[in-house]
Amino acid sequence: MPPTTVRAAAVQIAPDLASRAGTVERVLNAIAEAAGKGAELIVFPETFVPWYPYFSFVLPPMLQGPEHLRLYEEAVTVPSAETRAVAEAARKRGAVIVLGVNERDHGSLYNTQLIFDADGSLKLKRRKITPTYHERMIWGQGDGAGLTVVETAVGRMGALACWEHYNPLARYALMAQHEEIHASHFPGSLVGPIFGEQIEVTMRHHALESGCFVVNATGWLSEEQIASIHPDPALQRGLRDGCMTCIITPEGRHVVPPLTGGEGILIGDLDMRLIAKRKRMMDAVGHYARPELLHLVQDARPAQPLRRILPEPAPDLPMFSESEASDA
What we know:
Elements: E1 5-12, H1 20-36, E2 41-43, H2 55-58, H3 65-74, H4 81-93, E3 96-105, E4 108-116, E5 122-127, E6 150-152, E7 155-161, H5 168-175, E8 181-186, H6 193-210, E9 213-218, H7 223-229, H8 233-236, E10 246-248, E11 264-271, H9 273-281, H10 322-327
Parallel strand pairs: 1-2, 2-3, 7-8, 8-9
Antiparallel strand pairs: 1-11, 3-4, 4-5, 6-7, 9-10
Helix pairs in contact: 1-4
């Protein structure tokens, strides 16, 4: 029987900009802290492991090479020792974990979201379908296979990253699969205060339109970290603010006050009965939809750079011709 109340945690902390191992340690510590407060769902910021590529926002392409290559070296593969450590933490704590990572797949990096169920199984690995602006220099594109809602211990979950929420069709693909909890995340410490304001509008709107809960986590950078990314005070302004870690109800309200600066973990209880309360009034993919007028077609096939069509095996040839066989 699905739970009527889910305790959710949205984590806003800084990565370790020096090492993947350091950031993973921070992830595991935050899981322990949130689970110690009863959290059954824990959401981390965008590409938190090893870190979001903040350098790509302030460095010109000609100067990005060393940091981009360092990101390659510190990125994770899936599966890996790092993903197994998070899976084990999910199993040990009995919590669903949503983690953003830089995923390395041979010669490419991807903005990837991982959902681990409370038993430690990896329920979803999806890649951001369109990297945004400066991110296009860093990551490849995802595909429609990741626009999938999965069953977890806390309910039906979907996930999108950052400006994917500005793609209404991507959101509708998840809505049409009846997500109950939407996990989202942004980099934080980017653009300035307007970014945080826009995130709040977007998260509240998706909650209202989909009739689901939204648990959103944004990252955070210290002043020392900002200075390490770029020494120019003018460019450093682009690496501050932009944080809006929040937990939103299907009625578009904050469960607890949002976190817009500093490090911390938001804890909020999701009353799952609010989903039916909202959808009774407006179900955007049910009684309020008009599929005979407007509907979405999703190609959910994984994108493949190579499709090999192998030749049919040659038929076995007889040892003798028909005439030779008759003579024999």
